[in-house]
Amino acid sequence: MIQVEVYRKKGKICGFKVEGHADYAREGEDIVCAAISALSLTGVFASEKLCNLSKQITQPEEGLLSLEMPTGLDEQQQQTYEIILETVIIGIYETAKNYPDYINIEDEGGEYSWN
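RE: above sequence
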């Protein structure tokens, strides 16, 4: 099962961690793992590109990806980073709605609902 942890400070998203494997299908055919990986890595690439940041991760570990908002961002970068993180998490929630037996989400006070 894929475990997702969403980190928030004062209700605002500041990062997430995705760990594990869905085991929905064989390696190379697992659409649940592929979806979560694509969403997570899109968050990494978008934060680097749209916030003008250096590499957020050098090489994702097998079955583990973590992304946290760095300190020292200006207000515009921080807002952009939050939007990117929330977009990734919304995509993960929507995927989990379709594959609830393969994805578990722990969200520290998030406002996104399953409905």
